[in-house]
UniProtKB/TrEMBL annotation:
InterPro entries: ARM-like, ARM-type_fold, Hsp70_NEF-Inhibitors, Nucleotide_exch_fac_Fes1. Pfam families: Fes1 (PF08609). Residues 1-16, 26-51 have a biased composition (Polar residues). This is Hsp70-binding protein 1. Residues 1-64 are annotated as: Disordered. GO terms for molecular function: adenyl-nucleotide exchange factor activity. Keywords: Repeat. One of its GO terms (cellular component) is endoplasmic reticulum. Residues 66-155 form the Nucleotide exchange factor Fes1 domain.
Length: 376
């Protein structure tokens, strides 16, 4: 009995010790889990079961879907902004004055600046060929910074800015002539109001004369740019092209030694013909454009950009089977058929596919009928 009692006592004591050991282990784990960032050693087979880490206090709930992720990010950013927000203090009068001066120096009164430039340029008529023109050039450059905005362009007319065009276009200084032509182009581009007012101001014939005969290459290029901006998208200006022999000017520009004049004049003619305006086509046929185009296409040293635009003009002119253009293209004296066939053998498909397509289309439209095969 004594042995039995002793055995039972030992079992109870061992059980009690085991419970105390487990209790201490659990307390140790509980205490460890309350730490914000617990560091655990590498997992081994002898380690006890890992207790999942608990979220940090005052943090947004962990997201479980896309909407929750968005809310989590917004809450976290708001919390960070709140913690890092600096106190705001009212500005004293000295700082207010400094900031007002700084902002004023960055603000430009556009109309006032344009009026100053117009005032300076109103005296350009007194500028002689050997005078320094830098003040006037600076005024024009300052003006050019603003007038590409349609609203400001219209305001520029209303403050009397168009009065400077004629004196500047007729200046003895090419630097003034090309700059004012460039400004006219910016004013006219996609602006029907200014296109109308520029025609009324009488600048159109002056610009055409500059394209033909100005001694400055840059002035000729900018004048053609201005004419293009006035005419394109503005049907009313086409009658000015007729009355001022504008198409002849473009044809002469296309044959000039100035590459940019060739390209821009051919491009403008292509644009005008693409509108399917039979009046423009009739005018060009009467003026011998097709004959000149056929001759230019046969040149060995013709610029690729000019060649492409010439083909576009011819394609536009024979579009819808426009008979006067078809008859002119079929004239055997022009050798247009052989020229187009020669181009097809010379052009490279990778680089000139558009031109190849236009040549093939012209041959099909113009020379597909049996009776037109007598050329050669």
């Amino acid at each position: 009995m004594g042995a039995s009692f002793a055995k039972q006592s030992n079992v109870k004591m061992n059980s009690s010790e085991n419970r105390e050991s487990k209790k201490d282990a659990n307390q140790g784990q509980s205490n460890s889990s309350t730490r914000p960032l617990s560091i655990e050693g590498p997992s081994t087979s002898s380690n006890t079961e890992r207790v999942p880490s608990q979220p940090l206090p005052n943090q947004p709930r962990q997201p479980t879907n896309l909407q929750g992720l968005l809310k989590y990010a917004m809450d976290a950013a708001q919390s960070e902004d709140t913690e890092n927000k600096s106190p705001v203090y009212p500005l004293d009068e000295e700082k207010k004055a400094f900031l007002n001066d700084a902002l004023s120096s960055l603000t430009v009164n556009v109309i006032e600046e344009l009026q100053k430039a117009v005032q300076i340029l109103s005296n350009v008529i007194n500028l002689r060929a050997d005078d320094d023109s830098s003040e006037y050039e600076n005024a024009l450059e300052r003006m050019a910074d603003f007038v590409d905005n349609i609203d400001i362009a219209n305001d520029f007319y209303k403050i009397g800015g168009f009065s400077i065009f004629q004196p500047c276009l007729n200046s003895s200084h090419s630097s003034i002539r090309w700059r004012i032509a460039d400004i006219i182009a910016e004013l006219a581009q996609n602006n029907p109001f200014c296109q109308d007012k520029l025609l009324e101001a009488g600048v159109f014939p002056v610009l055409l004369s500059m394209i033909d005969s100005d001694p400055s290459e840059q002035a000729r290029i900018k004048a053609l740019y201005a004419v293009s901006c006035i005419v394109r998208g503005h049907p009313a200006s086409l009658k000015y092209m007729d009355t001022n022999d504008g198409y002849s000017v473009l044809l002469r520009a296309m044959q000039s030694p100035v590459e940019k004049l060739q390209i821009k004049s051919a491009f403008l003619l292509s644009s005008l013909c693409s509108k399917d305006d039979s009046n423009v086509k009739h005018t060009l046929v009467k003026m011998g454009f097709i004959e000149q185009a056929a001759g230019l296409l046969g040149r060995i040293n013709l610029q690729p950009a000019v060649r492409e635009q010439l083909l576009r003009v011819l394609s536009s002119m024979v579009n819808d089977n426009f008979l006067p253009a078809l008859k002119e293209c079929r004239r055997s004296q022009l050798y247009l058929r052989s020229t187009l066939e020669q181009l097809l053998t010379e052009l490279k498909p990778v680089e000139n596919q558009d031109e190849i397509d236009m040549c093939a289309e012209l041959l099909d439209k113009v020379f597909s009928e049996p009776e037109t095969s007598q050329e050669r």
